[in-house]
Specification:
Oligomer: heterodimer
CATH architecture of chain A: 3-Layer(aba) Sandwich
Strand content of chain B: 15-25%
Number of domains of chain A: 1
Number of helices of chain B: 17
CATH topology of chain A: Rossmann fold
Strand content of chain A: 5-15%
CATH architecture of the largest domain in chain B: 2-Layer Sandwich
Radius of gyration of chain B: 53 Å
Order of helices and strands of chain A: HEHEHEHEHEH
Largest interface: A-B, 13 and 14 residues
Number of strands of chain B: 17
Shape of chain A: globular
Largest sheet of chain A: 5 strands, parallel
Shape of chain B: rod-shaped
Structural class of chain B: alpha+beta
Largest sheet of chain B: 5 strands, antiparallel
CATH topology of the largest domain in chain B: Heat Shock Protein 90
């Protein structure tokens, strides 16, 4: 149950998840944005909306929350079929960084098909190489430009 | 005469013994029996002799012996004299006459002490008295004064004449000219003194070690300090304060190595001075072989490298610290740049959004509000807010450029270099092609000569010349056509490339500062860039053993000389 998983999260601030209702009502692909900077999240959301992408958007405010969303506490995946989601993942985040999360996702055969796009302000070639090696589906340097939007559109359409 | 003493070997001829006796210069009278001439004919043993015949035979034999004795006496290569108890010469052989430069017959009756130099006479007399007291062989070295007043060094040996005291108390004096021997000894001593002075002059410990027992045959005072060298001390006791020869992996014994290889050896040892303080020495061992090629001694000279060792350790420590600090710095730069970028994205992003909101607001105002309010809002919406946003955008743009520059420089320090043979004609062709569009746009002519190859990192070297040519294209002189030339030659093992332009040039006082990070000479001339091009060039060259210098004249142009190891 998606909702069960979501409700178990320790939400402590304003609603970060645009949620339209129960599982049965969800249409299309949900975009998970794992981003510790609220401003960045808002800007990304505006960009996506301005580009006409009106899919569900879930904000995961740090690495731990992202892992909690993806895995239950006993280590079992808590996701419905991965083709219902794409993950936009920041690298530098408190607690657990994005590269660790990417590695965890790609080494778990139940999650490894989840499309993951790194969205970061770093264009460090070492990071880019590392993420590519781990199997990320895209690497976007902030702020989102047209090319980045096109990539996300493509992935939301395919996923 | 005791007959039995004359015959013991007479009947058995022993050629070996005869030969020894004949050649011995100091032949004692007791050996005279060995003479062939005293052998009795075989026949005489077969038939008994009459007493008269026997006496005649014995006399003949005696005469033979006397002749033989005289021959030995006269022809001996040393001076032989017989003295009485008053030192009066009773007999003298030919050599005595030659040595004393007096006919030997004229020596008889003279007192030998006359021939002893005044300085040594007392020594001789004491020697003589001692001989008379003990009747035992005495020997001393004297200066003998010859009859012609010349003098020479002699060894005078007093030996009891056959029969000793009882045989009349005559004394045999053997005089040997030792002038040459003394000269040789003086020369040897002089050489020894010279050698000791040379060794002593060395400020480093120097030893000659006997390899059989590790005792020190010779050493300078640098080796043993102010103490007197104990002749039995071993090298390991002196330098290591140990009871056994040092032989471990950490401090291998140089003597052992030389014994195995027969070649000089160098090792590093920790030695202890008499206060027990440890010092690191570089020990050089050099073999000394005897005539049969056996290792006899080893020369060791030691250099105190304690200071050098400490410096090396300190350098290693500093290098490690530096490396760690460098990594830390790179990490700080990276993190700081990243974290600075993050809020910048917000400022820029939301400033853009504000701009859009302003536009929307303008449209709304235009349509719906009164003229009075409109004037006020128009001022705000058309001028004040856009201007503020413009400054925010310009500021964030500038910060973004600087942060990107910082990141690039920090990455340069960490990037791996692959030094390889570079065909510079090809590399420069690629560089120029990459800049062709910009060069054509600004109508700059670029000429490239044949260039020598070099050893360098391909990407880094490409970056160096891209930045230099890019600068040359950027900083053109407004009033003349831009001309850029690239030439090169090999100098002292380096390939030196010259990039020359006829642009605005650099004033001499700024020539050194142009390589500083973010340094720009013309902040408002509208040229793009973050002031990093030459910093990057310098950084890349540092990392591949290259260098750069500039010659420039303000208003006329610049010449950059890039030096890289020749291929």
């Amino acid at each position: 149950m998606i909702c069960g998983g979501l409700k178990s999260l320790p939400y402590n601030s304003e609603v970060r998840i645009e949620w339209k209702g129960e599982q049965g009502m969800v249409k299309g692909v949900t975009i998970l944005i794992s981003e510790d900077d609220r401003g960045h999240f808002v800007l990304m959301k505006h960009c996506l909306r301005d580009a006409g992408i009106d899919n569900e958007i879930v904000w995961l405010c740090d690495g731990q929350e992202t892992l909690d969303f993806l895995f239950t506490h006993d280590g079992q995946p808590n996701l419905p079929p991965v083709d219902k989601y794409i993950l936009l993942l920041d690298i530098r985040m408190p607690k657990i960084d994005g590269i660790e999360i990417l590695a965890d996702i790609k080494k778990d055969e139940r999650l490894d098909h989840l499309p993951v796009v790194i969205v970061t302000s770093s264009d460090n070639p070492d990071n880019i190489r590392r993420c590519r090696e781990l199997g990320c589906d895209g690497y976007i340097v902030k702020p989102l430009d047209e090319e980045a939007i096109a990539m996300i559109e493509r992935l939301t359409a395919v996923a | 005469m005791n007959k039995s003493r004359l015959k013991p070997w007479g009947s058995k001829s022993d050629p070996a013994r005869c030969k020894v006796a004949k050649n011995a210069p100091h032949v004692a009278p007791c050996c005279l029996e060995v003479s062939d001439s005293v052998k009795k004919p075989e026949s005489s043993l077969e038939e008994p002799l009459t007493p008269a015949e026997e006496i005649t035979g014995l006399r003949r034999e005696l005469e033979g012996l006397r002749k033989k004795y005289c021959d030995f006496f006269d022809l001996a290569p040393v001076g032989l004299l017989t003295l009485d108890k008053d030192m009066t010469i009773l007999s003298a052989n030919q050599m005595s006459g030659q040595l004393l430069f007096v006919d030997r017959t004229r020596l008889i009756g003279r007192n030998f002490a006359e021939f002893v130099s005044a300085n040594d006479r007392r020594k001789f007399v004491l020697n003589f008295d001692e001989f008379l007291r003990t009747w035992r062989r005495q020997s001393c070295e004297l200066r003998i004064k010859r009859a012609d007043s010349a003098d020479f060094w002699a060894r005078a040996t007093l030996v009891p004449k056959l029969g000793g005291k009882k045989a009349g108390g005559h004394i045999r004096l053997v005089v040997v000219d030792i002038t040459q021997q003394r000269k040789a000894e003086v020369e040897a001593r002089r050489q020894g003194d010279f050698l000791r002075t040379v060794i002593e002059s060395l400020p480093h410990p120097f030893y000659v070690i006997n390899v059989d027992d590790f005792t020190i045959a010779m050493a300078n005072s640098a080796a043993y300090g102010a103490d007197t060298l104990n002749p039995e001390i071993t090298c390991y006791a002196l330098t290591h304060h140990k009871e056994n020869p040092c032989d471990c992996l950490q401090y291998p014994c140089p003597i052992k190595i030389i014994r195995e290889t027969h070649k000089p050896a160098t090792v590093e040892h920790v030695h202890y001075d008499k206060n027990g303080d440890a010092k690191v020495f570089e020990v050089h061992g050099y073999p000394i072989f005897d005539e049969s090629g056996r290792l006899k001694q080893v020369i060791e000279y030691n250099f105190d490298i304690t200071a050098r060792k400490h410096a090396e350790l300190e350098r290693e420590r500093l290098m490690t610290t530096l490396e760690a600090k460098n990594k830390e710095l790179q990490s700080i730069v990276y993190v700081a740049s990243h974290d600075l970028k993050s809020p910048l994205i917000n400022i820029k992003g939301f400033a853009d959004e504000l701009t859009q909101h302003c536009r929307k607001l303008q449209e709304i105002c235009r349509k719906s509000i009164t003229d009075e309010v409109k004037d006020e809002t128009t001022q705000l919406l058309d001028e004040s807010i856009p201007q503020a946003l413009e400054f925010i955008n310009a500021g964030t743009g500038k910060i973004n450029v600087l942060i990107n520059g910082l990141l690039e420089v920090s990455r340069l320090g960490a990037a791996e270099m692959h030094i390889e043979h570079l065909d510079m004609d090809k590399l420069m062709h690629d560089v120029v092609e990459g800049l062709r569009f910009e060069a054509n746009k600004r109508r700059v002519s670029i000429t490239v000569d044949r260039l020598p190859a070099c050893m360098g990192d391909r990407a880094g070297t490409n970056q160096i010349f891209t930045n230099l040519l890019n600068n040359a294209i950027k900083y053109l002189h407004a009033r003349r056509k831009g001309r850029i030339s690239v030439t090169g030659r090999v100098e002292n093992g380096n390939s030196v490339y010259r990039v020359q332009d006829n642009g605005i040039g650099i004033a001499p006082q700024y020539c050194d500062r142009i390589f500083e990070i973010f340094h720009r000479l013309e902040p408002r001339n509208g040229v793009d860039g973050e002031g990093l091009g030459l910093t990057i060039v310098g950084r890349i060259l540092d990392r591949q053993q290259g260098s750069i210098r500039v010659e420039s004249e303000s208003g006329k142009g610049s010449r950059f000389f890039v030096s890289l190891p020749a291929a």
